[in-house]
Fold each of these.
Amino acid sequence: AVGVSDCCNFFAAVKVYQAAIAQGIKPILGVDLPCVYPDKPNEISLLPILCQNQIGYKNAVRLVSKAYLE
């Protein structure tokens, strides 16, 4: 397997997915989303999200879209 995780987007996902599949390697796609906790509003943490399958990828895309809009 090979994985890639972008910060706040999936810009590298298509290229990594296509290259991995072409070589017979399972791609693992991920994204790091910024999170702010209510009790520490001045601190931003990154939450890594890895996609286990197509359903996970779709859910992660929804989260990325929501994070971008809010």
Amino acid sequence: TQRGVHETVVPDERTVRNDILKGQWKQLQGRIKQAWGDLTDDDLARVEGNGDQLAGKSEERAGQMRMYIE
């Protein structure tokens, strides 16, 4: 079936929750990278960890906003 021009697509609840969980997982990975960078005195690992945390937080917030919109 084709969708009309004005028809909106609402994501299902599982998709939204997956976005939130993916974001939280990325944040955890970022914290681990950052801790590893602290332990090994690796500045690059710290920066990558911060970037992963930021990306994860953004993804989590996007999922929360989608849930709020529904």
Amino acid sequence: FLDEPDFLIFDEVLNGLDRYMQKLLLETIENYKANGKSILIATHYPKEYLEVIDEIFEIKNKKVYKVEKID
């Protein structure tokens, strides 16, 4: 997949996908992660990615903050 880079960047990657394709993509991301690769996902909906993310950061007023809890 994409010649196996060490780092991937996605922006709202699940938007427009049906539930089956979302599940398949999240499984692919999880497998990619299990092989020691890093992934950055930009999204307005972090709850959709809870099963595959390790950390969440928020950008607000040009500053980056680590999010400890998702409401």
